[in-house]
Amino acid sequence: MRHRLLAVLVPLAVLLVGALGVPLGITVAERELQETYVDRLNDAGRFASLAETALSGGRTEALDQELERYHELYGIPGALIATDSAVVLGSEREFDAARGDSDALPTIIQAALAGARSEPSRDVWPWQDSPLVVAEPVGRDSEVVGVVVTISDLDRTRERILTRWAQLAALGLLPLLALVAVAWPVSSWILRPVRKLDTATAGISRGDLTIRVDAGGGPVELRHLAGSFNTMMDAVEHSVQRQRAFVADASHQLRNPLTSLRLVVESLRPHLSGDGGRQAHDVAVDELRAMHRMLNALLASARMESMRTAEPVDLDTLLATRVDRWRALTSVEGQELRVDVTPGLLLLEPPGGLGSILDELISNAMRLSEASVVEVAARPAGPAGFVEVAVRDDGRGIDPSDREQALRRFWRAPKHQNVPGTGLGLAICAELVARAGGELRLEDGLARDDGGSGLAAVVALPVAAEPADAPT
User: Fold this and answer.
1) Alpha-carbon Rg of the chain, whole angstroms?
2) What predicted TM-score, i.e. pTM, was given to this entire model?
3) Final residue of a domain: which of 304, 331, 357?
């Protein structure tokens, strides 16, 4: 998150520095070029004044020596051009070579012969190699008798421009570095409460309602947010605790009267006469037993929902403690238990334990499906980083249209209305699996001889990072 904040601030700072630095760099380049142009113009003006005197007196030796000396010292060829564009004084060979580097030279000379002084080009940049041409008329207005032309290589000027640009870039880099140096700890200070909130919400999503956020750091607004978050969680935890306490207390308080009522009703049977009375007595006893099972299921639900955290588990170790008991239970019912598990699977078990969930799923397969085969299978599958543990049977199954409702509390299939049960088992298992970041879904099970298929309860759980201790 801190990197994303810097990714927003740093480009904005770069744009700001660029908005200030680019015009300043252009100004620096123009000033360097202007200074060079003024120097060359002064030199050309001096040569023009000497040329006017030399041409009027017919003595051009001194001017010729000045042009040669100027070329030797500064490497800048200069020449006196007559009105017919011929070189009168200066090194014609070197001037012609320099003339080839400037396409605009003929135009500049013609403008100077017309009495116009040349202006510096504003399109000179360090990555260009065009020379600077300065033409100074000899004479004035209609009395122009020649033109003094200098062709200057701007390599040194370009080097100075690049040097100044490098200095400006270094100066512009300093505030960027200062911004990063300041923004890094400041962003950490600002985002620390946000990271704490994110960690807290992740823990709460796993079922731990006791987590609170430290509201003592960060900006005032985030401290207020942390305080409001803690207040909200206090209210949520209090509400959930009251709900669980109500379920547990109500179940406990109803159990004793219900047990007494059941004993009283059962003791009435010897005093009943007639088939109608005995039949009503049997119905009352069955209803009392169903209510007793419901209270036990509600108590189990309250206990399991109070478990908050998911922990790693070694599936091989877990199955080793339960397979023998499952095999014994299925053999009593005349069923066959098959186990097909990929060895070495480590996964994150839901609160309350994966073993309890598998117990419930196998119990449902034994009681409700009328199956002859119950299979427990496990393999890495589904999304990356998940393990699927499936309990399949070849029984009657559940209609595909009813499978989503089967994961809701108190739902019973019409064909299971007279089978002992509360309709809470699958719903509680699905909620506990979801707390561990997994999913419980119902699919087609093992194939039957009549062409149909039974039911498969598939538990998809995340792979654990490291193995857990063997369960007790």
Assistant:
1) 48
2) 0.46
3) 304
- Written as six digits, the tokens of 133 are 């041409």
Q: In this structure, what DSSP letter does residue 218 have?
A: S
Q: Is 274 in the same domain as 335? A: no
If phi over 0 gives left and psi between -120 and 50 gives alpha, with beta otherwise, what is residue 328?
Answer: alpha
Name which of 122-126, 154-158, 369-373, 443-447 the model is least confident about. Answer: 122-126
- Cα 378 from Cα 345, distance rounded (Å): 8
Backbone angles phi, psi at 123, to 5 degrees: -105, 30
271 and 329 share one domain: no
DSSP state letters, 369-410: S--SEEEEEEEE-SSTTEEEEEEEE-S----GGGTTGGGSTT
User: Which tokens go with 155?
Assistant: 């390599």
Structure tokens at 249: 């207390």
> Do 32 and 134 lie in a common domain?
yes
The mean pLDDT of the chain is 79
454: domain CATH number is 3.30.565.10
Domain of 300, in residue numbers: 220-304
Closest CA to 437 of 209, 210, 205: 205
In a domain, 172, yes or no: no
The arithmetic mean of pLDDT across residues 282-296, rounded, is: 76
> What's the rounded mean pLDDT across residues 398-409?
80
Q: How far is CA 302 from the centre of its chain?
A: 38
Are 12 and 139 within one domain? yes
CA distance 251 to 296: 8
Which pLDDT band, with edges at 50, 70 and 90, does 324 fall under?
very high
Domain membership of residue 193 (yes or no) is: no
Specify burial of residue 119 (Cβ count, 10 A radius: 0-12, 13-18, 19+).
Answer: exposed
Asked if 153 and 298 sit in the same domain, the reply is no
212, part of any domain:
no
Same domain, residue pair 275 and 330:
no
Q: What pLDDT, on the 0 to 100 scale, is given for residue 471?
A: 44
Tell which wins on pLDDT, 251 or 232. 232
The residue behind tokens 């908050």 is 308
Q: Please give the Cα distance from 319 to 341 (Å, whole number).
A: 9
Same domain, residue pair 246 and 127 = no
Cβ-proximal residues to 397 (8 Å cutoff; 6+ apart), any chain: 369, 444, 445, 452, 453, 454, 455
CATH number of the domain that residue 284 is part of? 1.10.287.130
Q: Residue 472: its pLDDT value, please?
A: 40
Instruction: Indicate if the pLDDT at residue 297 is higher than 50.
Output: yes
